[in-house]
Amino acid sequence: MTGRRALGRQFGWLWAAFVVSSYGTGLRFGAFPMIAVLVLHSGPTQVAVLAAAGRAVGALVAVPLGPWVEFRRKRPVMVAMDLIRCAALLSVPAAFALGRLSFAQLLVVSVAVATADIAFRAASGAYLKGLVPPEDLLVANGRFESTTWTATVVGPPLGGAAMGMFGPMTTVVADAVSYLLSALGLRAIGGTEPRPARAGAARLRAGELLEGWRYVLAHSTLRPLFFNAIVVNGLIMATEPLLAVLLLGPLGFAPWQYGLAFAAPCVGGLIGSRLAPRLVARFGQHKVMFSAGVLRACWPVGLAFVRPGVPGLVLIMVVQFGLVTCCGLFNPVLATYRLDHTAGDRVVRTLTAWSVSSSAAIAAMTAVWGLLAALTGARTAIAVAGVLLLATPLLLPRREHAPLDTREQAASLT
Known about the structure:
414 residues; mainly alpha; globular
């Protein structure tokens, strides 16, 4: 199992589509807050609402998409989600050119893009499981993970330069075009995709909206991983705005130092994702996932001790490099483990439930930690999150569980 394994022409097009959309998203990083501040003259409260509302409302709107997507061909759904994101983003520069851009439109576009993101990820996970042999899933997920971190390293600095030279609308257009190119790449995959068979009633029932959560919570292996992922992602993301306030305010870091402190360590994500197949081949999937899950929880508490100047900058970069490397190793192994242990007719609903819960938890924890920081200070709130993260390895499964075999998947269909 190596990262250089050939996965075929169809996977090549799928990966190419993911690459171009990932880099487009990286270029657009920070564009909406900048548009809100510089173009619409919004205040801090509105910018915070813009950041949280898209994720929270998008998660709510995406709830019925899981069972809807489950019984449809996945590639057309992915193409449709790309086109929706493209159209939604293009509406922003179009409205700006006509002098009609408003804060409400930014909110609507944020919700539309967030909802389409969740539906796309769920459909792509199910599509990948059918496209790639089980023994190659980790290699495929590792390539997606390495692409994500590479785009995170390269995209925001280039996007920042483009926004500085040509304005924030430039990167919004670039991201919209990237989704259009992604849709064309998905169309180029070709081949035929069988329509999933649906047992029972043809119409969507209200009870099916919660099927993804029921499946995860009843699954002895997925349940602890589900809660671990929600808590870890929520606590890490909740501290990002507080770090920005602390570093750019009391500690006096320049904007370029702030960007460097969080962009450069993303190289660790690329390293971790490239090491994942080799380490799993040597030590086993469960051992690697458990070890990386434990190690990633140990780093964030160090951010509470950051100080001004070069020593503080070095501390942030070391902590972030350790955290991102562990995440880059953990994430593709988790993605593969989740697909291996999910029945074929439950993949989309499971991934949708996972994404919706994660988005909602991040939005809620960001609000709670903002309130905590207002009461105790940003540094104290960051420390509390770091201490809580130290307990999250308790949610990781302690024993190895065999993936679902054909008989188990068949039984799940009855």
